[in-house]
Input
Amino acid sequence: MEKYIPDVYQKSIYAIDYTKLMEKGIKCLLFDVDNTLAPYHIKNVNDKLLELFTQLKEMGFQVVLFSNSGKKRLKPFKEELEVDCCANARKPNPKKFLHVLNTYHLSENEVAIIGDQMLTDIVGGNRVGITTVLVNPISLKDPFWTRPGRSREKRIMKKLRDRDLFVKGRYYE
Ligand SMILES: [Mg+2]
Output
């Protein structure tokens, strides 16, 4: 069950202690986009998000959008936030995670993935051994194509809760 358990769990991207991640040696932050940065139907960046990303870059993080969505979906985020992006990442497949590590010459302990889905963001990150950060999804309205994953996630979360390994809403750093 360990592959499902994130290293860090916070309410949202705004609640994460990025200073602590930096102190741990994290140099690169991979952000999931849909329901982590913005709901699925939102196509642009709000001030709060822009402010956070500006701050993260000023802190010295390499910030990369790391999404299973296509280039077209990521374009406005990439342009407005002025960060690199990796589209069609096929999380939890490790291939593109490893590609990012190679491209930026980083080791596993220098990279963190931040996302809202246990089965893609967290499982993928844990497979390659990077730091995994789970946040709650912004919107509860998932598009139909992620629903099978969500119900599987629910079942897994129940198992984890029964074993007291992970409890939704019980945040930790
Ligand atoms: Mg997501």
In short: Residues 2-162 form a domain with the Rossmann fold fold (CATH 3.40.50.1000). The helical segments are 18-23, 47-59, 71-81, 95-103, 118-128, 147-162.
